[in-house]
Predict the structure.
Amino acid sequence: MIHFFAAYPDTIKHFIDAWAPELGGQIRPVAYRKAWFQRSRPPGVCIFSDVELLSAGQLFFARLFSRRLQGDHEIFNHPDRCLNRFALLQALHDRGINRFSARRPGRLPRDLKFPVFLRRETDHRGSMSQLLYSPGELEHAVAKLSFRSRWFLWRRLMVVEYVGCAGADGLFRKYSVMNVGGTLIPRHILFSPNWVTKRADFVSAATVEEELGFLENFPHREPVTEIFRLAGVEYGRMDYGLNNGRVQVWEINTNPTVVPIPGKIDKRRLPAQTRSAALIAQALAALGQK
């Protein structure tokens, strides 16, 4: 049995409904707001998801709750070890893995490398600004933020240095890999002419072939394995690009859209995506047998 704790439990439900209905009896999605108050839970694997989205108060309760589960349950993404996005980006930069850093607006170093962009630490929607090429542009972009962003979310705001990850063809590539209890499953390469890549904006015979080669060969296994370990994440999806052949991690989402529903996938990409979904379902089934 897998107990799947989440701020947004519908994400894993959508994957089960669309791709793995056989897992319906093995995975129990539970919203955090309900999980806190449940006194007992059958033995099994417990996945803490959405850890990077939790407020300080919610994280405090998640840590207390995880300690109640220890002993009878194997815990993945333990909230005592799982790094939030800002801490992860800092750790990757400090270790020389990422060539870019993330800073807080009020603590910018003199050697900040432009261009930069603004991003919320707890937001998976991407950049809050265009690329900013000078301290003046950065100051102007911060001043344009809404009152809510500047006041309520100030402690979660990041100034992120930009590192280009476009290929020789001018297309940006967003690589993604799922980690399911230590089993790494390549998810996709999304191609786009835009530096903020959230979907497959460009699909051709060549990109379909390149994506399939990535799913079959997964050439980045060694660095990705180490980065998941550093992050304290045993379930989630890593999104990254390549800069001069080096893996550059943008985030690890502990409750991602696992695989979009078939109707939202270009038909040319569907066979590879179906294969990836099947491998994730197999890994989840194996996890549920622990």
About this structure: Residues 2-76 form one domain.
